[in-house]
Amino acid sequence: NNSNNEVTWSSNDESMVTISPLGKVTALKNGSVTITASSIKDPTKKDSLVLIINSNFTWYVKADATGTNSGDSWNNAFKNLEPILDLVQNGDQIWLASGTYSSNNPIILKSGIKIYGGFSGNETSLESRNNTKEVILTGVSNRVIMAENISNVTIDSLTIKGGFTSIDGGGMYI
Q1: What does the pLDDT look like over 96-150, one tens digit per residue?
Q2: Contact between residue 53 and residue 32 where contact means Cβ atoms under 8 Å apart
């Protein structure tokens, strides 16, 4: 629940959306959620609406980003891939600006996601990227990428280096 001086905002599923004290709704994943606004002065006065969230979101990753680290734009890009992995949903895209991204944990892919490298970090469309910008994913003490029982995944313009395992698939295990 969030509130300002007159209204309290809530949702029936906080894993689906966040709501600011002023009622700004930010979707976190696809699905259906009920948003309710209630009067603080008279709690019997309230209204609800059902939102159907079906967005194919683009997440941004840029090693030298300086914004809010929310991943919703180049200015506010995540500095590495790890925060996105819990947020990304089927149909989402991840855009990576040039740089090297290291992780102690493998990147575990989900069905339907698309990961694109080759960005400078200011593009507004996939078509405007310059694929000469190298993006390197490297593992420190584990596999770099893992994918099991998934489908419709795109990995484009990435270099995978390093990774370690005592069995097959140090760089990528599919």
Answers
A1: 999 998 887 788 888 999 999 999 999 999 999 987 889 988 877 677 777 788 8
A2: yes
Q: Cβ distance 90 to 76 under 8 Å? A: no
pTM to 2 decimals? Answer: 0.67
Per residue in 43-62, is it b (16+ CB within 10 Å) or e — as a string? eeeeeeeeeebeeebbbbbb
From 118, 114, 148, select the one nearest 136 (Cα to Cα).
118
Kindly report the number of other CB atoms within 10 A of residue 151's CB atom: 8
Cβ atoms of 66 and 125 within 8 Å: the answer is no
DSSP-derived secondary structure letter, 44: T
